[in-house]
């Protein structure tokens, strides 16, 4: 899902990495690459234009120029804007105050409605609901049978017309084309749900191979007859650019309250996902990601954006860092560090700030690309950090400010106080001196250490 879009966006950001300041040319180049990446992923042109415009505007503003790390800030902006075009908040089903809640499915033939009906029913059942599936797709040969099979697999009751018994039949035979009036079937299905105390009704409707007036009329008629609480428009994400036109036609012809993207598991370039919300103003509510009943997810715009950006949970990490990291203090620390004034007290403070962000293992795990270091992460001993903190806490303020005064007897006292060995204390002090020396050399040589830090 979104593989090539992911790669393209990654390379768009690559040029920014390590830059302390972004020039107008940097921002233009990145914006151009993002534009091409989105167009290649089949995102609708007006959506691309608006999206890139917002990115450029924000990337040229204060929030980036004042950032500690401009590249990261740009990624953060792209992520926020992506979440925006994907719909912002997760949109959940709106249940009726008085059951049953009626959910109607609409979309082209082959979009994945019947499959989705089963997935949705199974998921609702898991949530503690008691759904009824209604087979109002009387157009496609075998659609009723298919829904019955799906319903059985999901363990959900299916309401289907008796062949040849309802309304104006069209002469079809069982197993090929079901007879009857789909509007009447839908109406009867809802009445049946009320009678048998199902709290949700999912009405599967007919599609056509293309958008046509008859199809829209039938869907509208069903809509009017059952007054659904939700009309879900199911769209095959693999149809690319066409998705937008089809969605617009359904928005005008039937209107819908939410979108389901199906076949997101295919090699879809993802354009439909990124365009549909902007173009129709309707939220994407679910994603269908395979032929199995379990291949179904609630659509979370924020998680989808993270996936598109291949960011792991980088954003949580950046946000957490922003919360505990005081930029002004960091600058002071950096200045002191350059002057060789960085002390063990500063070091302790830094470790405590890191601790506020979470465990070291968890922090590292949020970095993208850390999957390959799984084993090392699992072996990382959090207690090492605790030990360092305990040693520094057992020092007097004078010792923290000037570790040079820590002689043999002080080391003994510190180790006893912190429950560590004299060797542990020696190691910390030695490493601290080495790190300070290195920092001062870097300062003299003009090299600017990114973050003040004297990790031993
Ligand atoms: P309907 O005509 O809208 O009811 O569409 P169907 O539910 O019959 O789906 C059409 C075809 O797409 C079937 O072969 C399904 O197995 C397949 N399909 C549906 N949803 C998905 C999906 O999320 N991923 C994949 N790979 N195939 C799907």
TrEMBL record:
Task: State the InterPro entries in the record.
Answer: AAA+_ATPase, P-loop_NTPase, Signal_recog_part_SRP54_M_sf, Signal_recog_particl_SRP54_hlx, Signal_recog_particle_SRP54_M, SRP, SRP54, SRP54_GTPase_dom
Question: Carries keyword Ribonucleoprotein?
Answer: yes
Residues where GTP binds = 107-114, 204-208, 262-265
Write out the ranges of the annotated region (Disordered).
159-183, 400-420
Q: Where is the composition biased (Basic and acidic residues)?
A: 400-409
Keywords from UniProt, A to Z, are: Cytoplasm, GTP-binding, Hydrolase, Nucleotide-binding, Ribonucleoprotein, RNA-binding, Signal recognition particle
For this protein, the record's SUPFAM superfamilies field holds: P-loop containing nucleoside triphosphate hydrolases (SSF52540), Signal peptide-binding domain (SSF47446)
Under Enzyme Commission nomenclature, its number is: 3.6.5.4
Matching entries from Pfam families are given as:
SRP54 (PF00448), SRP54_N (PF02881), SRP_SPB (PF02978)
Q: Where in the cell is it found?
A: Cytoplasm
Span of domain SRP54-type proteins GTP-binding = 283-296
Q: What does it catalyze?
A: GTP + H2O = GDP + phosphate + H(+)
Q: Is this entry keyworded Endoplasmic reticulum?
A: no
Write out the similarity annotation.
Belongs to the GTP-binding SRP family. SRP54 subfamily.
Record remark on domains:
Composed of three domains: the N-terminal N domain, which is responsible for interactions with the ribosome, the central G domain, which binds GTP, and the C-terminal M domain, which binds the RNA and the signal sequence of the RNC.
| Function noted in UniProt | Involved in targeting and insertion of nascent membrane proteins into the cytoplasmic membrane. Binds to the hydrophobic signal sequence of the ribosome-nascent chain (RNC) as it emerges from the ribosomes. The SRP-RNC complex is then targeted to the cytoplasmic membrane where it interacts with the SRP receptor FtsY.
Subunit organization: Part of the signal recognition particle protein translocation system, which is composed of SRP and FtsY.
**Protein name, as recorded:** Signal recognition particle protein
Name of the coding gene: ffh
């Amino acid at each position: 899902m979104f593989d090539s879009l992911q790669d393209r966006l990654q390379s768009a950001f690559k040029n920014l990495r390590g830059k302390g300041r972004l020039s107008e040319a940097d921002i233009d180049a990145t914006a151009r690459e993002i534009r091409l990446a989105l167009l290649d992923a089949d995102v609708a042109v007006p959506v691309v234009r608006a999206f890139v415009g917002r990115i450029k505007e924000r990337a040229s503003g204060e929030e980036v120029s004042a950032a500690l790390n401009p590249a990261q800030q740009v990624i953060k902006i792209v992520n926020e804007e992506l979440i925006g075009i994907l719909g912002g908040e997760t949109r959940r089903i709106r249940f009726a105050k008085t059951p049953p809640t009626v959910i109607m499915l609409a979309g082209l033939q082959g979009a994945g409605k019947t499959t989705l009906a089963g997935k949705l029913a199974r998921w609702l059942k898991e949530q503690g609901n008691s759904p009824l599936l209604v087979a109002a797709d009387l157009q496609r040969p075998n659609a009723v049978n298919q829904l019955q099979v799906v319903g059985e697999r999901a363990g959900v009751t299916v309401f289907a017309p008796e062949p040849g018994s309802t309304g104006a039949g069209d002469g079809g035979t069982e197993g090929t084309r079901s007879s009857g009036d789909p509007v009447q079937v839908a109406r009867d299905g809802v009445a049946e749900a009320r009678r048998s105390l199902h709290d949700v009704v999912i009405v599967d409707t007919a599609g056509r191979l293309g958008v046509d007036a008859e199809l829209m009329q039938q869907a509208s008629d069903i809509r009017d007859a059952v007054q659904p609480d939700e009309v879900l428009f199911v769209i095959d994400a693999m149809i690319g650019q066409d998705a937008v036109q089809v969605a617009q036609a359904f928005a005008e012809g039937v209107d819908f309250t939410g979108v389901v993207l199906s076949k997101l598991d295919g090699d879809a370039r993802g354009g439909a996902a990124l365009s549909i919300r902007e173009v129709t103003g309707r939220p994407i509510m679910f994603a269908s990601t395979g032929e199995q009943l379990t291949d179904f997810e609630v659509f979370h715009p924020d998680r989808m954006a993270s996936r598109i950006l291949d960011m792991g949970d980088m954003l949580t990490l950046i946000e957490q860092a922003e919360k505990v990291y005081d930029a002004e203090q960091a600058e002071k620390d950096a200045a002191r560090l350059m002057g060789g004034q960085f002390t063990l007290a500063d070091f302790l403070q830094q470790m405590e700030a890191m601790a506020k962000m979470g465990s070291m293992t968890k922090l590292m795990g949020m970095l993208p690309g850390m999957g390959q270091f799984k084993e090392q992460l699992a072996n990382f001993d959090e207690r090492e950090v605790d030990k360092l903190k305990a040693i520094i806490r057992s020092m007097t303020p004078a010792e923290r400010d000037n570790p040079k005064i820590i002689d043999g007897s002080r080391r003994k006292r510190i180790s006893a106080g912190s429950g560590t060995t004299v060797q542990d204390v020696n190691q910390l002090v030695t490493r601290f001196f080495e790190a300070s020396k290195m920092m001062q050399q870097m300062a003299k040589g003009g090299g600017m250490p990114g973050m003040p830090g004297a990790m031993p």
